[in-house]
Amino acid sequence: MSVDSRAELASRDRIEGRDKRAGSNLYTLFMQAPAIICVLRGPDHVFDLVNPLYRQLFGDRELLGKPVREAIPELEGQGFFELLDQVFRTGEPYIGRESRAVLKSGDGDAGQESFFNFIYQPMYDGRKQIEGVMVFAFEVTEQVRARREMEQLAESLRQANREKDEFIAVISHELRTPLTSILGWARMLRLGGLDEQTQLEALNAIERSTQAQVKLIEDLLDEARIASGKLRLEMRTIDLLSLLQPAVAGLVPAAEGKNILIDADLGSDPCPVLADPSRLQQVIWNVLSNAVKFTPHGGTISIRLRRAEDARIDIRDSGAGIEPELLPHIFDRFRQGDPGASQRRGGLGLGLAIARHLVALHGGTIEAQSEGEGKGTTFTIHLPLATATGERFVERDRDRKVALPRLDGIRVLIVDDEADNREVIAAIAQRCGAEAMVTATAASGLDVLRRWRPDMIVCDIALPDMDGCLFLERVRALAPEEGGQTPALALTVLSARAEQERILASGFQIYRQKPIEPADLAHDIARLAASRVA
To answer: Is the pTM of this model over 0.90?
Structure first.
């Protein structure tokens, strides 16, 4: 063999060795690459090679030697087969980004949504004819979901910000509306010259506006308690009938003013439920008052109480109804539909949200149904019946005290830094025949106590120079002949249980949350005065 022949053989061996190593390296890269890779041959896209990540994606299913449509039938209709056909036909690569695919890992799998970045790359034979398509893919499901969650969070924040702005606007409107009436009529009364009928209308308007303010503040406080998890119920067994009957009776005057027919079928059998009477009454009254508000003149409101596996209250009106797009959100906080709805309807959009929470705390549900705008609304409340324990029902006091008691000869010391509050409390006491002395600070209150020796004290808790509880502790430290045992009533804007306990522990016999009804205050004074005599 010539030298040239040996050199040619050696060169051929080197080339073959290099090609083998290159092929081996390519195969190793194919199998170990951190990508999902497969090789599809022919126009039917028959699986020729798949790497471990590709096989892992489809579980134990057999792929090699099968056309892709047969091996992965769930991809039919998702656009991937059509793209493979296009790449094989045109020779143009295709790049897909965050493409959605529903894949199955086995025969019993219903399919799972996944997302991929991928490339369909045409493959050519030695004659530069397309012989197949190589698929490179990277799963980006987690990245897509994370981005979507961030987008949803961002949209939620934007929505919350919009609702906050709308809520502030509603707060401003709802505060200013009754204040306008109160301030306007108060100034007209001061100017004088109003006839007796107009004066009565003015006083009624001031009272209505004040009650609207109280409702606004109570809703805000309830929402704050719910948000902080501090809303508590005082549960006892009651007859649901005892709440519904006075609520329906209280609805009649407003309904008659709009010529609305009240159709109530409550039955007569007891309906025992475990409930906080005041909170459950709050729910019922909220729904009933909404029914009157949204029912036009000459409409109808029907109220039904049914007893079966549970207690069921149905309240249906023939009023404005609820738009389909609003119905799923009717119990959401601060949601009354479009931004102008709260101005048309009144209120903050908190009432039904609070009602749902209160009903849930009672172990029940509340839902709304409406066939659409102008077709009325039905609210249904389900409450679990109380178990039979032999316990007597605790009936609600249906007759609110409205007559003021006589307080002749009783001396009342009033300690409050707000001049208007001092004057109205003094006016209530004097209206009932009592004598009243007012003071703005705890220090002056102690001085008046020693000199004037009142029969009882009405004291605000938030005083400028000394906390009301500390003031009373100093009163209790006095000798009896200096007034140390004088009965005392506390006035506070706070309603937390800890605050109530602190007030009673300091020596107050009674506490009242502001604002206070004149009749309640007068009866409290009478009770405390009677206890001193006893």
So the answer is: no
